Amino acid sequence: MDRVNQSVVSEFILLGLTDSWEVQICLFFLFSVIYLSTISGNILIMTTVITDSHLHSPMYFLLANLSFVDLWLSSVIIPKAIIDFFRDSKTISFETCMWQIVFVHLAAGGEMVLLVIMAYDRSVAICKPLHYTTIMSQQRCIWLVVMSWVIGLVHSISQLDMIVDLPFCGPREIDSFFCDLPLVIELACMDSYGVQLLVNAESGFLATTSFILLLISYTYILLSVRHHSTDGIYKALCTCTAHITVVVTFFVPCIFIYLCPLNIPSVDKFLAVFYGVFTPLLNPAIYTLRNKEMKAAMKRLRIQYMSSRGKKLNASLSEKSSIKLIHLTWHHG
């Protein structure tokens, strides 16, 4: 970030989602509930996977990492949006805007790759169950997750490199609730068509490649289980349905923002809200509500937590009783 240009514009103005004060109040409560649910849901998933030995497998390791990425993505976007609902002037400094772009694209790029890895994991588990533990070893899982973060980092840095030196000397109003890259490029005091094309091409390549690999994985799964038992087909369909739902909710908004931009402000805002606010909440809900093992593990975690609190309470009461008995003994003595 040392190369930040010496442009006239030192901050941008975020126009937000609406000018209506009443609607902003409603959105404040809505975003607050969604963010608290997202934070608590994703932390619960990570805690459950880490503490429950029954979930120490590649699938749940990847799921915990997906929850961490969603936690990251929502925390970069939502808190500032919540604060800005009570501000008349929704400003963001040039440097903060650039960092927000970096972190959003780091999380989004990493999540695309991670979803591909999760699809690959399920295809190996369903189609090659006897070789699953060998193929998806712990070391390989770690390397795959590291690879997703590296690709996300390269993607975000390349996006930043294309815009950080653009001259921003006039317009500074961003018609969104966060620094959305295409909208920031439009504010440059130059013909930004070439830069926009490069940004869309780079983002489009990552999104398209990931999407194609996902389609190949799920097609391979469905073709492989078509001759299996009814129970096997049902489990495969449940797995694919959950994964495909996540893929659609994440990739479709990205495709319309970067590959096929509609340039309709209201639609662009809706898509930005969908992938930046709702998707991090939908992911844990989709994966956990349809997963019996995860629900059972959460139940065990809750029982363990309640048992631990009960023991602490009993110990506290016992300690108080002992102190009271000592005082009574001393008094009578």
Layout of helices and strands:
Layout: E1 11-14, H1 21-51, H2 58-84, E2 91-93, H3 94-127, H4 132-135, H5 138-163, E3 173-174, H6 181-185, H7 193-224, H8 230-259, H9 265-289, H10 292-332
Parallel strand pairs: 1-3
Antiparallel strand pairs: 1-2
| Mean pLDDT over all positions | 83
What shape does the CA trace take?
globular
CATH class type:
Mainly Alpha
Low-confidence residue ranges:
2-6
CATH architectural group:
Up-down Bundle
Total strands: the figure is 3
Strand order of the largest sheet: 2-1-3
Describe the structure.
The chain has 333 residues and is mainly alpha-helical. It has a single domain, classed as Rhodopsin 7-helix transmembrane proteins (Rhopdopsin 7-helix transmembrane proteins), CATH 1.20.1070.10. The chain is built from ten helices and three strands; from the N terminus they run E-H-H-E-H-H-H-E-H-H-H-H-H. The protein has a three-stranded mixed sheet. Helix 5 (138-163) runs antiparallel to helix 7 and helix 8 (230-259) runs antiparallel to helix 9 (265-289). The longest helix has 41 residues, at 292-332. The chain is globular, with a radius of gyration of 24 Å. The relative contact order is 0.13. The model is unreliable at 2-6 (pLDDT under 50).
Question: Which descriptors apply to this entry?
Answer:
single chain, 333 residues, mainly alpha, Rhopdopsin 7-helix transmembrane proteins, three-stranded mixed beta sheet, 10 helices, 3 strands, globular, disordered N terminus
